[in-house]
Amino acid sequence: MPLTETGVLLATDRSSRTNSAVAAFNVVTLEHAEGIVAGAEAASSPVILQVSQNAVAFHGAIHPLTAGLTEIARASAVPVALHLDHVEDPALVHRGAAAGFTSVMVDAGRLPYDENVAETARQARWLKQNLIFVEAELGYVGGKKTQVQSAHAEGVRTDPDQAAEYVALTGVNALAVAVGSSHAMTAQTARLDLDLIGRLRDRVPVPLVLHGSSGVPDDELSAAVRAGIGKVNVGTALNVAFTGAIRRWLNTHDSVDPRPYLNEARAAICESVTHIIDVVSGT
């Protein structure tokens, strides 16, 4: 089916999304994307394919990967949107728009608050003029080299009043919030502040996004969605599944052909995606 806009999946009328969220999964290779879409099809659920600025740097160019993802989305039996994640380079915002991404996360979280507001508002104006959904982040989710504070340090959680002000000043369409999760966690040991999520939901008029969801236990992730999270970002959990499947295959086979173990890795991603979608969709 045609590529779906992120804003369509993340309906701002959150009353229609009680107890469910849209799952967004990070793509590194085409096998990631194929496994993600297969998992979403198995769950009969829409899905967002995310490409981070780091993944773009890995590939060296944005258009070849995006072209592949677009074709995978078009062949899908479920709605698929493309999201460009954690963009710190303003030039990449424009390249992402030209490549066909339906949403962009403007990441100015490394900047002091006033500068974050100014930069995010500037990028958001241009993106919205070009009909592209805009996400931003307030607070410190942690786990990225450019973030100067830990997700668990004092005073790093997103303040509801400041979040409401930030959304009003920047005009963003979705807000990633710091509520206890952290990027790049390989174990599900994070503990979320569910009360804070509820207060943010009540103050912020746009969908809330949870980054670092790989480190959140299933029951807590479901509770976070019920409390008000509308978009759940997952990356590391898929890489754990992907690399684990490859290690297991190579430990028992002697071959130089990458296709058999990449097939196993793709299947592992599919299984993980179906499970995570079930967790965040209330099924």
Question: How many angstroms does the end-to-end distance come to?
Answer: 25 Å
What is the tally of beta strands? 8
What structural class results from the helix and strand content?
Answer: alpha/beta
Mean pLDDT: 88
Text of the CATH class: Alpha Beta
CATH superfamily assignment?
Answer: Aldolase class I
The strand line-up of the biggest sheet is: 1-2-3-4-5-6-7-8
Query: If helices are DSSP runs of H or I spanning 4 or more residues, what is the number of helices?
Result: 11
Description of the structure:
Strand 4, helix 6 and strand 5 form a beta-alpha-beta unit. The protein contains eleven helices and eight strands. It is globular and about 55 Å long. It has 283 residues and is α/β, with parallel strands linked by helices. The chain starts with 5 loop residues before the first helix and ends with a helix. Residues 12-16 and 148-154 have low confidence and may be disordered. Strands 1-2-3-4-5-6-7-8 form an eight-stranded parallel barrel, surrounded by ten helices. It has helices at 6-9, 30-42, 53-59, 63-74, 90-99, 113-129, 160-170, 194-203, 218-227, 236-252, 258-280, and strands at residues 22-26, 47-52, 80-87, 103-106, 133-138, 174-177, 208-210, 229-234. The chain has a single domain (6-280), classed as TIM Barrel. Helix 2 runs parallel beside helix 4, helix 2 (30-42) crosses helix 11 (258-280) and helix 10 (236-252) runs antiparallel to helix 11 (258-280).
